[in-house]
Amino acid sequence: HVFIPYFGNLGYEVTVFAGFRDEAARLKAAYEESDGIEIYDRTDVDHPRTYKHSPRACSNNPEDSIPQADYIIMALPSFAIQGVLRDIKPHLKLGVIIFIMPGQGGVDFIVREMLGEECRAGKCSVAGVIPMPLNCR
Q1: Burial of 136: CB neighbours in 10 Å, binned 0-12, 13-18, 19+
Q2: CB-based burial label for 93 (10 Å; 0-12, 13-18, 19+)
Q3: Whole-prediction pTM
Q4: Among 6, 26, 88, 94, which residue has the least CB neighbours within 10 Å?
């Protein structure tokens, strides 16, 4: 969720697909109640920065957020990657780049199984990110 305000602050239109149970509804309720998601960047302790932003869409339906995505960032536990790829596959935009974090643990095998044909046809590209750029608790 930290990527939402970070990329929104950089001018990107951010949409969220959260297909697990009621996660999309809970996230949407929280950011609407708080007028956005706020993060604090303290990488430079002398000049901390704050980012606040809301996604344009947040849904448990991939049709609402995936078709317009040029880039997809999947920061998920390894066991969830296959299911999310299955859900978003029919909605991928031509030329989309998918970044998966963490990028180890067999992600390449999962991608080959789920999106091999799409990758070979040039419909999408996939990159595994190792190590994860940040962890939030």
Answers
A1: exposed
A2: middle
A3: 0.89
A4: 94
Q: What is the pLDDT of residue 61?
A: 98
- Residue 27 is classified by DSSP as H
Contact yes or no for 128/107 (Cβ under 8 A): yes
Task: Specify the DSSP class assigned to residue 124.
Answer: E
| Identity at 104, one-letter amino acid code | Q
Report residue 9 as tokens: 């602050």
Instruction: Please state the length of the chain.
Output: 137
For residue 105, give both structure tokens: 């643990």
Nearest to 104 by CA among 83, 120, 127: 127
Answer whether 38's CB lies under 8 Å from 5's CB. yes
Mapping DSSP to helix (H, G, I), strand (E, B) and coil, where does residue 72 land? Answer: strand
Question: Residue 133 above 80 pLDDT?
Answer: no
